[in-house]
Design a protein that fits this description.
Layout: H1 3-22, H2 40-57, H3 64-80, H4 82-88, H5 93-115, H6 121-148, H7 150-156, H8 165-185, H9 189-208, H10 211-214, H11 219-249
Helix pairs in contact: 1-2, 1-11, 2-3, 3-5, 4-5, 5-6, 5-11, 6-7, 6-8, 7-8, 8-9, 9-11
Amino acid sequence: MHLGRRVFGLSAIAFGIFALTWRDFNTWQQIRPLGAVPHPEILLYLIALVEIAGGLAIQFAKTARAGAAALGLVYLFFAVLWLPLYAAKPQVYDLLANFFEQFSLACGALIVYATSAPSDPERAAKLARLGYYGFAVSVVSFTLEQIFYLHGTAQFVPAWIPPGQMFWAVTTTTAFALAAIALLTGRAALLASRLLVTMIAIFGLLVWLPTPFASPHSLEAWAGNAENWAICGSAWIVADYVSGLRKKTR
């Protein structure tokens, strides 16, 4: 079914639609490091159209490879833009965390690119493995980000969920850490990747899904949903990839 690939693509389509609807150069916070560029709307429209086209293409077996390549390049471009800012302020981990959020998406796209009708299976296997470990390192960053900003993380948790916001902040941070260890070591990687998908999906349903209803005109509310589901889709791609490897070894 390749459900991870489909969720990943739909989130990219959503990003593009939000950009064209709001026509805001800051639709993606990762574009902001470019600063003042001439005719920024041209760049916005171009990226939005690539996201929509790539998101559509990745839905179908015959065009998935091309769609993954387009989306992977876009997300890698977004990721690299954060590195100069982090180099200037290495004490601000949030800047590096922003890099890894986009890098995790590029890694998911790389796995789809490598595993979709590869002409060179050996090279494809290496690229897919690279995407897998790149995503695993990104999960390490997700863990560190929540550790460094634990109180901020707790504020995202709906107050009505027992036993408390800080409890779930600590629990999800621990879950990210355990998932990172499992993915990097290969021990229980399939279970860990599936549980990671489930946790991020729950984030989307409980944390992000209600925000557009509370603030329907807020671009951040809509884009936050797309970002969460993009990361969920990337994690799902990893789970599908690990599942495929296990089937080959049986």
